[in-house]
Amino acid sequence: MRHILVIDDDIHVGDLLQEALEREGYRVSRAYSGTEALMALDRARPDLILLDLTLPGLSGEELLPRLAGIPVIVVSARADVDSKTALLLGGAADYVTKPFVLRELLARVAVRLREAAARGDGALTFQNLRLDPDARSVRADGAEVRLTRTEYAILKLLMASPAQVATKSRLLDEIGQDTPDCTESSLKTHISNLRKKLRDAGAGDCIESVWGIGFKMAAGHPGAKPVGGEPCRKGGAAE
Q: What sign does the dihedral 168-143-58-13 (CA atoms) show?
């Protein structure tokens, strides 16, 4: 089910949008201020955002740059061309002026979601993990997993080809230039820390050690023993 976040402090408008969107089969969450919207994004990443501009706390204009990687439809009473142009150039996917025709807004939502799906939005998924390169974020069941730069680079490489074993030398070669703290002697520690964070986030033992070669994403459900290899041991370091 596609998830839409409605950010609007007008309760009547928000209720109208939520009712219409849920009737179309979307899951809807609400935020009534810019600050509350950031808290909602920490809990779960939506597939699309409907954003009002006049908000308590952070305004819609201040919030928009923090929503990179998520399609945003601005829904605002401001009708001047300069505002529309600035916001579209600033990252908004679309702009709808209040008062709006509900049927048209729903059509725009469907189009933007279809466009995002066609692009594949660059995100990588594995079981309940989602890695978004645009936002440089990792989520397990929608909850953010906070990783270091090196841990993120390792996970991104593994998730890009989950069935393929990444040798230790390949890991070092491909991420070493951007993450100078990852060396042959520290790779074990980075992998071990990454595994622990993923386990704690509910992703299970999803990185598998291939003895003497390297690492790959583990098959099966989160927490399950992977087929064809030993799972990551709780608290254990990488081989």
A: positive
What pLDDT sits at residue 195? 94
Strands (E), 34-140: 48-51, 72-76, 94-97, 124-126, 129-132, 137-140
Nearest to 52 by CA among 4, 6, 100, 102: 6
Q: Compare 183 and 146 and report the one with higher pLDDT.
A: 146
- According to DSSP, the β-strands at 3-7 and 27-31 are parallel
Secondary structure of the chain: what % helix, strand, coil (to 5)?
40, 20, 40
- Confidence (pTM): 0.56
Right CATH for 3-121 from 3.40.47.10, 3.40.50.620, 3.30.70.20, 3.40.50.2300:
3.40.50.2300
Per-residue pLDDT tens for 28-40?
999 999 999 988 8
User: Smallest Cα–Cα separation from 131: which of 195, 50, 45?
Assistant: 45
Q: Which CATH class is domain 125-217?
A: mainly alpha
Rounded-to-integer distance, Cα 219 and Cα 199, Å = 15
Neighbours of 1 (CB within 10 A): 7
Instruction: Using the structure block, give the residue that is written with the tokens 């520290």.
Output: 186
Best CA proximity match to 115, nearest among 70, 51, 68:
70
* Percent of the chain residues topping a pLDDT of 70: 88
Nearest Cα residue to 186 out of 226, 153, 222: 153
